Amino acid sequence: MRAGQRFYLREVLSGLVLTGHHFFANLGQHIAHALGRTDARGAVTIQYPEERRPMSPRLRSLHRLVRREDGSPRCVACMMCETVCPARCIYIVADEHPNPEIEKMPSRFDIDLGKCVFCGFCVEACPEDAIRMDTGILEFSSYSRLGMIYTKEMLLALEPVGPDGVPRSPVPIPADRVV
Amino acid sequence: MTATLADFGIVFGRVFFVMMFILNLGGLLTWVERKQSAIMQDRIGANRASILGFRALGLFHPLADAIKMLTKEDFLPARADRFLFQLAPFVSVFFGLVAFASIPFGDTLRVGDRVIPLQAVTLNVGVLYVFAMLSLGVYGVMMAGWSSANNYALLGGQRAAALMITAEIAIGASIMGVVMWYGSLSLQDIVRAQGGLLFGWIPKWGIVTQPLAFILFLTAGIAATKRIPFDMPEGESEIIGYFVEYSGMKFGMFAMADFLETVVIAGLTTSLFLGGWQVPYLYETGVRFPWGSTIGLPHLLVALLQIGAFSLKVLVMIFIMMLIRWTLPRFRYDQAMRLGWLGLFPLSILNIVLTGAVLLAWGDHP
Fold it and tell me: Is A175 in a helix, a strand, or coil?
């Protein structure tokens, strides 16, 4: 330690000047903002539930099942995603499809989000582009483990994220969650 | 002279004013701390508590805090000393509240033929009184640490005791220079003496006549408030400290005691070094500038100006102490002890010697 540092006082003062400068500069910005200058920002805070941080389009958010034009799932119950899933959180029950052109369809397609690790392997593995992780929804919580299991109907109802980065479908609320 | 109801009312009013001043300021400091630290760190700070949609810059958060703390469980550890455990937070807050009593917030107010001193208690040993009360405040902390039956709380209490002795010695020694210079132990007399002018134009405030003592006193005073950078009795990051077993409003009272001590130290610094209620060049009859021109002011306006000046100086001091608290990292326990005993204490003694030499060379009290 140099002699000047050992004396604390100069270093303390330079620190106080730095933080004090931040305080008054930000305070001026806040006041300018309150007076109508909307471009003045005294803080880097994003007021989360109202404002959302811009997300990369590649971000892996809540899954959704893609629909055909008639509204039925694009999924053919090939079990690729269930097989590749490292967390083993997908559970599919296959069924006959009424259309003979299509071999199978899922009668059940459950994802246990409590187990999911959001690796995106299911999206990679899908030969039909039937499952995607582009809803932009990050808020899914529940008071019970059962509430974390999302069924086929819930996943089919979800829409991809809008161009403004705001999810277009409402956050699905499990039955046990009190709002 | 027999005491009339009016006398009683005046005394009550003085005490009430001081009580309201520090209680409200202490409560407001929770908001100041949140907002000031947020703005310093490019954040916005607590702003969600609202009444009917009005957020008022987060000013309702102290209220929300109080409601939260009052409705929380009041936990009593099974092996704690029941009596001391319950008593400790009250001791802490009580001495924080009464310490302000002898700090003058204005000169005298003349109403009719009455002369009202603007001070809760007129004491001729006001400086000693404030120190005594500040030192007694640490007993609450020690009691909390001892009675919790928790090793970390005990460590915190011991550290608080060690820190308080370190700080008190430095405070007491650094203040001797001021007492020697102004020749009184009464805070009101010290503040009155600071109304004079040095070389005809510099206000004779303590910060001008005793700059070294000001730095030493402020450092030791911040140590006495037990806040960062001297927060090893609490030390949230290591031992949590003397209040580790407390919950609800009792925990809140310890936090409140810290803020009250901040207000007391700010008030004491103002009185001793920043001229108390003195406004430069403002005298009892009006403003008199060093170049000779005068502006006459009515007595009531002068009194109000003095009270306003005192409040403003206290607020500025609190701002500076908050700025220090949110700028510096914390001292380690041994570093704080070394700073106190090998830094502040010898320098305070040096200050006494220097002040004595200057006074001797000057002849009389300048």
Answer: coil
| Number of domains making up chain B | 1
In a domain, B46, yes or no: no
**Residues A43, B327: C-beta atoms closer than 8 Å:** no
Mutation choice for A interface testing from B323, B331, B338 by most A CBs within 10 A: B323
Q: Which of chain A's residues have a Cβ under 8 Å away from the Cβ of B40?
A: 19-20, 22-23, 26
pTM tops 0.90: no
Chain A CB contacts of B324 below 8 Å: 12, 16
pLDDT score for A138 = 86
With respect to residue B318, please indicate whether it lies within any of the assigned structural domains: yes
Q: How confident is the model at residue A137 (pLDDT cuts 50, 70, 90)?
A: confident
ipTM of the complex: 0.86
**Which of B36, B43, B215 faces A43 most closely, judged by CB atoms?**
B43
Q: Do A15 and B41 touch (CB under 8 A)?
A: no
Average pLDDT over residues A100-107: 88
Asked whether residue B10 is domain-assigned, the answer is no
Percent of chain B with pLDDT over 70: 98
**What range defines the domain where residue B234 resides?**
75-362
- Give me the residue label for tokens 């700025």: B323
